[in-house]
Amino acid sequence: MPIGRRRLITESYGALIIPGATSNGAVRAGAAVALVSITGNQKLVECSSSSNVEEFLGFAKIAVADGEPVPVVTIRGSMIEPIIEGGGALTPNDPIFLSTTLGEITQVPPTTGMVLRLGESVSPAQIFFNTDQRILIP
């Protein structure tokens, strides 16, 4: 291994791997994920606008099985290929929000729960990740 390189960085797929945190169930590549504590253990789970939105961390870089570390893209300004609600295409230059479906994004803001704007679409399948706005809807 070259001097100055650490396994945590070289095996991360260019994303953050939280030491000791593993997936709680399978996590899909491109899924929106949150870091939660389950029975005292740090776990990464797919999240939605009504489930663990306050703990939203970023997007899973690759698919992983239950109990595996999850590389997460967390850097503002990253280009992401997320899971789109309903499997459709995005309209470029429109805002992107965390969906009511676990792990997915939408261009239609939710009408209940937390509205978390995640950035803007740059193509039918890619977004510019920018989490500057959160709005709570009663």
- Which band does the percent of strand residues land in? 35-45%
Query: Number of DSSP helices?
Result: 1
Report the biggest beta sheet as strand number plus sense, adding barrel if it closes. Answer: 6 strands, mixed
Largest sheet: spatial strand order: 6-11-10-8-9-7
Model regions low in confidence, pLDDT < 50 over at least 5 residues: 1-10
Radius of gyration, Cα only, in angstroms? Answer: 15 Å
- The helix-strand sequence is HEEEEEEEEEEE
* SS-derived structural category: mainly beta
Q: What is the typical, i.e. mean, pLDDT?
A: 87
Inertia-based shape: globular
Q: Report the count of strand segments.
A: 11
Give the distance, in angstroms, between the N- and C-terminal Cα atoms: 53 Å
Percent helix, as a range, is: under 10%
Protein architecture, described:
- The protein is mostly beta strands and 138 residues long.
- The protein has one helix at 7-10; strands at 22-23, 32-38, 41-46, 56-60, 72-73, 79-80, 83-84, 95-98, 104-106, 113-121, 127-137.
- 3% of the residues lie in helices and 38% in strands.
- The model is unreliable at 1-10 (pLDDT under 50).
